[in-house]
Amino acid sequence: MAVSKEQVEEALRGVLEPEIRKPLVELGLVGEPINAWGSKVVVPIGVIADPLPYEDALKSAVLPALVQANLANKVDVELRGLSEQEIKRLRNLIQPPTDAEARSIANPIGHEQGRPNQFMEAGSKTRVLGISSGKGGVGKSSTTVNLAIALAKKGYEVGILDADVYGFSVPKMLGISRNPLLIDDLMLPPVAYGVRCISVGFFVSDETPVIWRGPMLHKALEQFLVDVYWGDLDFLLLDMPPGTGDVALSMGQYLPKSEILVVTTPQPAAQRVAQRSAYAAKQLKLPLRGVIENMSWFVGDDGKKYLLFGEGGGKVLADDLGVPLLAQIPLTPDIRVGGDDGVPITAAEPDSDIAKAYDALASAVEALGPARVYRSELKVKG
Ligand SMILES: Nc1ncnc2c1ncn2[C@@H]1O[C@H](COP(=O)(O)OP(=O)(O)OP(=O)(O)O)[C@@H](O)[C@H]1O
Ligand SMILES: [Mg+2]
Questions:
Q1: For 160-196, what is each residue's pLDDT tens digit?
Q2: Are residues 80 and 149 in the same domain?
Q3: Which tens digit of pLDDT belongs to each residue from 291-311?
Q4: Is 113 contained in some domain?
Q5: Number of domains in the chain
Q6: DSSP labels for 10-56?
Q7: Looking at the domain assignment, is residue 379 inside a domain?
Q8: Which one of 122, 149, 175, 268 counts the least CB within 10 Å of its CB?
């Protein structure tokens, strides 16, 4: 008997488009099945780019679901590039234009006016976590990436905005080596390990040093928030550049609900610099939620803990600032290797002690709950 579209849709009901992260069926991307000779059925799936850079991820989600449903002796999928019109329909489906936006599309001058910043909306469920530190090299990016994956493993929708305009490193750490795709005028963040990612690194070449400051930086960050399809995020993590300054300033404005987490190493000097960034967060009235101590100790082959960078810095800083010490992450060469290979430790070795330390950090962040005090003066005007 011929296999119907309804049967195929039933079989694919729970299957997500890997980067839009919504069910293919809901997105209207499942086509009429082609019933071929010898009980073979071919299912056309609409794709936003042809070739699709994440074709393997899509096929390996769709095929097992079709096989499982036992519809025919043989099943196959055929990817079909969407037409421009179909792309527009999809764009409006995933992010319906606001009235103001519809007006500015009709009148392309001033096109960007009226584009909503979902993170500023009163009902936004997204917790925005700014990962900061007073100085470079303490492990902000490693923390951002591994915390993001740990949260995704708990079932949350997670995005990373790599806001380190001077030393973006998140795409490399996540093994992402291509630019975002577009759905009409929306950027679609590439996904790795269940985490969406947008980085300054996608928009500049490695050879060009980024000298964005002040207004340009401000504008770029705004675009990363409003021109990107982030979906329904539970957490948006920002990998911030070292020190304080422009990015924090922009965050205060575009992401008024940001919560700041400070990364420090155990030695007293590091703790003093971390303190500076913590005070800056306070000046911006962004709530400081906790301290993460990185490179806390090293476990040798002899099983002993070695305190390479001293001890207690994280706790002292947390006490000083009146916030909890959320985690102590041991020093391990695997973090560096994972970062270089694009397979973070939380994904490569989920059962290792270090991955468990990040899982515990994710649980601590979860347990904190969203910050309750928001800046009333930054409410979106109706
Ligand atoms: N717990 C750890 N154990 C071992 N190596 C680590 C650990 N944390 C970070 N590293 C390594 O230390 C280096 C700096 O870490 P990372 O890039 O995360 O820091 P950062 O604060 O983001 O630095 P930058 O200021 O340059 O952006 C990297 O090579 C990273 O792999
Ligand atoms: Mg970094």
A1: 999 887 778 999 999 999 999 999 999 999 999 999 9
A2: no
A3: 999 999 888 888 888 888 778
A4: no
A5: 2
A6: HHHTTPBPTTT-SBTTTTT-B-PPEEETTTEEEEEEEESSSS-TTHH
A7: no
A8: 122
